[in-house]
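In this supplementary section we document a worked example of the pipeline. Step one takes a protein sequence of length 287 as its only input; no multiple sequence alignment statistics are reported here. Step two produces a three-dimensional model, which step three serialises into structure tokens for compact storage. The input and output of this example are shown verbatim.
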Amino acid sequence: MSHAETATVGLLHPGRMGGGFGGALVAAGHRVLWCRSDRSAATVRRAEEFGLEGVDDLAQLAAHSDVIVSICPPPGAPQVAASVAGTGFRGLFLDANGTTRPALLALAGNLAAADIRVVDGSVIGPCPQDAPGVRLHLAGDKDDVARIISLFEGTGIRALDTGGSLGAASALKTSYATYQKAAYVLAGIAYAYADAHGVIEPLIGEASLITRSPLTEVLEDDMLPSVAARAWRWGPELARCADALREEGLPGDPADAVARVLERWLPVRDAFDGDTRRALGLLDGRS
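The serialised model returned by step three reads:
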């Protein structure tokens, strides 16, 4: 299939995120199939809204699809893949479920045993129909990755090659989700504590002074050695924060957990001229 050609894509399943992806593919000129079996009325309405073509069962979807795209809750990804393997499908399978690298590799191994080629994908960003800018990061065989990228040419979805082998896109999702999802939860706890003590407005003022994400600063500004050097002081401070949070009936576990992580950096106490690689290595046991 050249990049100018259209394809028939089987979509499993058109939930909010999956439906948006299906709609983008339809808008790009592709035929998108979905399986009506055991799906809710809301899913049916969504599929119709995005111009997807319903088929009666998975076997029919697999028989007519060049590519199958799996976008479902991560715990269900292995079962979806196993069901596809049982249909005799021999095309290209994109798993875009934000699963972990070990889970993706196990899934890919099972599909490879059924002669199905796999591309590892991770979605970062909003549902395509809600806002622009969603990214689909891809990993695997370079030709297979290029084929997936070609499907999304001209859509609002940025399909990007990580340059890595199978598992790299899932590892990226794990890395990003660990920070991004935890950050929102921590922000909620912080504002709940501030609200209990009438200091939300000053906290908002402090937040407005933050112009860059720590996820950016920690490497681009070489901040990690400085953080590691302060760990011996920050750990006890966060332990006290955990106690204060619990006094208000708020969860102190996140602060306790961070305090325990900071203990790994005790060997580089006050080493402000330290090395980023050394700091990272202390986290994962390489140093």
